[in-house]
Amino acid sequence: MTTTRQHELDNYFALINKLLGQLSHLPPPLKAQVERELKELLHILEEVRSPRFMVVGRRGSGKSTLINALFNAPVAKVGAVEAQTGAAHWYTYEHGGKNIEILDTRGIQEGGKPIEQDFASSSQESILLAIREKCPDIVLFLCKAKEVDSAIHESLDIFERILRNIENIHDYALPIVGVLTQCDELDPPDIRKLPTDDEEKTQNIKAAVKVFTEHLKSRKSLNDKLVKVIPTVAFVRYGKNGTMDASRDYRWNIDRLQSLLVEELPTGPNLAFARIAKVRKFQKKVATNIVNICSVASSTVGALPMPGDDLPIITTIQMLMIAAIAYVAGRELSFQTVTEFSCAMGINIGTAFALREVARSLLKIIPGFGNVVSASVASTGTQALGQAAIAYFIDEIPFKSIPETNRIKSYFKCNFIMGF
Ligand SMILES: Nc1nc2c(ncn2[C@@H]2O[C@H](COP(=O)(O)OP(=O)(O)O)[C@@H](O)[C@H]2O)c(=O)[nH]1
Ligand SMILES: [Mg+2]
User: Fold this and answer.
1) What's the predicted TM-score (pTM) here?
2) Among 48, 49, 121, 390, which has the minimal tally of Cβ within 10 Å of its Cβ?
3) Best substitution site from 91, 235, 236, 254 to test ligand 1's pocket, by max atoms within 8 Å of Cβ?
């Protein structure tokens, strides 16, 4: 874990602990309930670690291009001539503070010809060392759409052996996703058109998927772990500053691959990947869970009068919620996102990032201000705020168009404004 990330989590923990400390006046069963909810929230954020992909495919099969396409950023060099030492390594690709770890095993599948004995053994040795070091979460087996017929049996032998080793060392049956790359090159080749726009091409892709799937399924051990074969086009051009050139984004089916990877990755890495790949459906699922957790926590607190505390408890829960949603959306875990959200809602808190300032500003418009509100107001208010945060951070809807804004503002009108 990077130190910045640790620092962010520490800040977040500190606020939760402070909040937990303030709950001492609650009757024990209610206190336990709020504690449970807040711990669940922490658990979601704590478990995030980088996904680890093992990538198998010949040179030129499109590994680097696919990594970039999945990442939405040019993190891996495309077409670079890589020194062929036969050694496999874990590479960490980073963008905007987010990482994926890739074990590039190209050495096992070079060219169409049998691999030289010495080279093969050193390559396998280095793969074994790498998998001993860390267990991959999933393996992507790449094959160019135009090369599905070429002999891959030699490399399937080695691949099977590697998977057996992973199972022995880590007791983990690595899921396999077959990726058919460069589908635009199948007849009639035209990268500008969507493959599905052309019936002939659609049929050719189907046929290539079938052949590739049969190769993989011809081995029992691979058949058992094969999740799916996904046909793709991964080609994108990036501008000088690393942003995607939308007019030359020819990706096709990458979103399907991203969703499949989120489904197949273990809990933790799946959220990390959804943050990187912006898999909105999954981000929303996690964010909705966060909103529910925080609504339960705030309605539990809202049911009871609390003595005048340092930080209003419900507002603090709502701040934790907003920061967590922003994080799930791919932003840093930081209370600055809460400030940004407040500003977007039209609350001018200037450059004051202090927690107290943000809380005070939010208090002015958010129901559940202070600590004496009804359970249902606290819960509905937190829900409305959570939905607004999902719309803002995940759907990236301009704030004025978010329906919850009006709901939140109407709560504001009918509730007592409290300063502190
Ligand atoms: N037309 C087309 N070209 C691609 C696609 N993916 C990769 N390429 C090209 O194929 C070449 C090799 O890609 P690269 O990602 O470097 O392959 P690697 O050696 O497996 O990492 C590069 O020239 C890429 O631009 C694709 O989906 N369509
Ligand atoms: Mg490459």
Assistant:
1) 0.87
2) 121
3) 235
